[in-house]
Design a protein that fits this description.
about 260 residues; mainly alpha; 8 helices; about 80% helix; about 0% strand
């Protein structure tokens, strides 16, 4: 809305400058050539900025996928531990997975910060639990489970590193300046559109919609276009199904005995 207001004012400013010009419009062809080149530059800048925001969005999606794979591997490797230690690690991993799902579903930055602190506490508990097992039994199998927990912690850090805006403020300022200049030049060139002033709003609307989409993709965790934790949700549902089927399998095995 703010960008549309500024761009619309820029177009109207160009119309006002055109009306205040005392001389006839000289060099119309050269002016139109410059206008076309400026509009082409604006299109390239919008495309480049959109590419930057989409690249950050793809990195966040890859981070979520890597987190799900690391948690799944650590959960499976917990079966290699003694029964009591393995159950504790699996319970902590399920709680950790729930917190990661909550993080992706929250819109409020303050709530996300609270979940991050809770996630950090669960990470400390996971590392303390696996460290106790590794100190007691230093075997290759235990080392494999330690590597799995370490991967869980590392993937979360990598995913958190991508949870930031990709388009810098300087790029936004350059986009805004070029867009306002383009609208001023379009307004200055619109001598034949005085009776159709509504046509001057087409370019501000299109540019504003482009800015809105770029900003929506670039801002992580807020907006309409968000990273959905599809892999984490699938992993959580799979783990819950396994936990529900495990007691039933135990009952059947005992009845068979």
């Amino acid at each position: 809305m703010v960008s549309f207001l500024f761009l619309g004012l820029g177009a109207q400013l160009g119309v006002w400058m055109c009306r205040k010009a005392k001389r006839p419009f000289e060099g119309a062809e050269d002016f139109r050539m410059i206008l076309g080149a400026t509009l082409s530059l604006l299109g390239l800048l919008i495309g480049f900025t959109l590419s930057m925001s989409i690249n950050g969005f793809n990195n966040r999606q890859m981070g979520e996928e890597e987190e799900a794979a690391a948690i799944n591997a650590a959960y499976i490797r917990a079966d290699l531990l003694p029964a009591e230690d393995g159950a504790k690690i699996r319970s902590l991993l399920v709680g950790y997975l729930e917190k990661r799902l909550q993080f992706y579903s929250k819109y409020n930055s303050r709530e996300q910060e609270d979940i991050r602190s809770q996630t950090l506490g669960l990470q400390n508990q996971l590392w303390a639990a696996i460290s106790a097992v590794a100190n007691a039994r230093q075997t290759p199998v235990i080392a494999l489970t330690v590597t799995g927990i370490n991967d869980v912690l590392n993937t979360q850090k990598k995913s958190q590193a991508t949870w930031r805006q990709q388009v810098p403020l300087a790029a936004w300022l350059l986009l805004g300046v070029v867009a306002v200049c383009c609208n001023m030049m379009v307004g200055y060139n619109s001598r034949g559109l005085r009776r159709r002033a509504g046509l001057l709003l087409i370019l501000p609307v299109v540019i504003s919609m482009s800015f809105m989409m770029i900003a929506d993709i670039d801002v992580p965790g807020r907006g309409i276009i968000r990273v959905k934790p599809v892999n984490l949700e699938y992993l959580y549902s799979t783990i819950k199904q396994q936990e529900m089927s495990a007691p039933a399998a135990t009952v059947l095995w005992q009845s068979a005995l």
